[in-house]
Amino acid sequence: MTRGAPLSDMRGDGRVPAPERAARFDGLPYGPRMTAALGTLRRAFGVVNRWVALPVLRAGLGPLFSTPVAGSLMILRTTGRRSGLRREAPLGYLIRDGAVYCCVGFGPGTAWYRNLSADPRVEVVLPTVAFSGLAETVTDRSEWDRVLPAYVHALGLVGRLTVGDLRTADPERLEFLWRSLPLVRIRQSGLAAGPTDPGGRFWVVAQTAWLVVLIRFAVGLERRLHSRRRSHRSRRGED
């Protein structure tokens, strides 16, 4: 069953011909406005991923920013299909049945998906464990039906705004998504979701810690401002 545009639509250098760029996302399951904005969004995500998400994840701080609303991120490392260099992508993920799952939200032309299609040997960096494995596109419809709704739910607000709640989606909607959104699986023996993974409760501790830090910062700032105001009034009295 065909999923999205074939990779043969790409130029030899990996770029999409200019006349086709506007239509490259047409097969994806988003509304007209969202589809029109996908090119801009992908470029914006590229900047945020490079300068914010990847440094945070490499430093092991991902769980501090993960919530059921914002979702959780892992790092997927692939081998560049042309350069042979290691490439990193921060992705939302879900752990189910001893495997990590991620979805190709921007379609089959996405760089990291094309990389693993050429060389399925990948590295996965989760909040508490890293491992190497083979990436596989899910071809079993029953597995896809079981995992994708839970995966989209784990993405939090992003999943709800872009794809919607698939747990109550009608069969026609699911059929369209099956054809347009590849789901990738990386197996690891003994892997199970922990408190820092989607569905875990570590986010409660993390957000409580952030709240304490913000309160202490606000109290300290108020004290400094109060001290400055008193000093200013004192100087004016001396004048």
Overall average pLDDT: 82
Q: What share of the residues lie within helices? A: 40-55%
Order of secondary-structure elements: HEEEEHEEHHHEH
User: What gyration radius follows from the Cα positions, in whole Å?
Assistant: 22 Å
User: How many extended strands?
Assistant: 7
Report the uncertain regions.
4-23
* Quaternary class: single chain
Helix/strand structural class = alpha+beta
Tally the helices: what do you get? 6
Distance between the termini: 85 Å
The biggest beta sheet is recorded as: 7 strands, antiparallel
Dominant shape: elongated
**Widest beta sheet: strand line-up:** 2-1-5-6-7-4-3
Approximately how much beta-strand content do the residues carry?
Answer: 15-25%
Protein described:
This protein is α+β, with helices and mostly antiparallel strands and 239 residues long. Helix content is 43%, strand content 17%. The protein contains 6 helices and 7 strands, in the order H-E-E-E-E-H-E-E-H-H-H-E-H. Strands 2-1-5-6-7-4-3 form a 7-stranded antiparallel β-sheet, with helices on both faces. The longest helix has 37 residues, at 202-238. The protein is elongated, with a radius of gyration of 22 Å. The model is unreliable at 4-23 (pLDDT under 50).
